[in-house]
Amino acid sequence: MDRDTLVTLLEYKRWADAGTLASVRAVDETAHPEKRRLMQRLMNHIYVVDRIFQANLAEQPHGYTALNTPQTPSVEELEANLRESTDGYIAHVSAMSEADFTRTIRFQFTDGSPGEMKAIDMITHMLFHGTYHRGAVGWLVAECGGSAFKDVMTIFLRERHR
């Protein structure tokens, strides 16, 4: 996968995260408190895993001992956090050399066990992991009578070229 494709996929992620959070914001929190909280927990889980792999890519400790945080951030906090994190990935990927993508990086999982992955595999894991959970959030939004965000690459590409 080339750098430009990865940057496009990261821009798609930024767009999909924002659209998904907009659909979460539209769900009536008083009518569906448990499901709304679960939506926010899932989006925060995406953010935490994004940050873990961002630290792993930089070969820095991530500081997380779990795949979510005890507190549930607001939708507004999640919007800012996810955008900032994805912007960081875009900057990092844009500065990587071809050799950097195939470099194997050793790290620790949140349970303390050792891991190792190529940088490209970390990036693609992060991208696909978020897609999986945004899909679950979309189901929850629909269960609450809302309109799930159309997290579709073709729509992103169409809107991007307008």
UniProtKB/TrEMBL annotation:
SUPFAM superfamilies: DinB/YfiT-like putative metalloenzymes
InterPro entries linked: DinB, DinB/YfiT-like
Coiled-coil residue windows: none
Keyword Metal-binding: yes
Pfam family, one: DinB
UniProt KW keywords: Metal-binding
Organism superkingdom: Bacteria
Family: Belongs to the DinB family.
The protein's name in its UniProt record: DinB family protein
Organism: Cronobacter dublinensis 1210
Species classification: Bacteria, Pseudomonadati, Pseudomonadota, Gammaproteobacteria, Enterobacterales
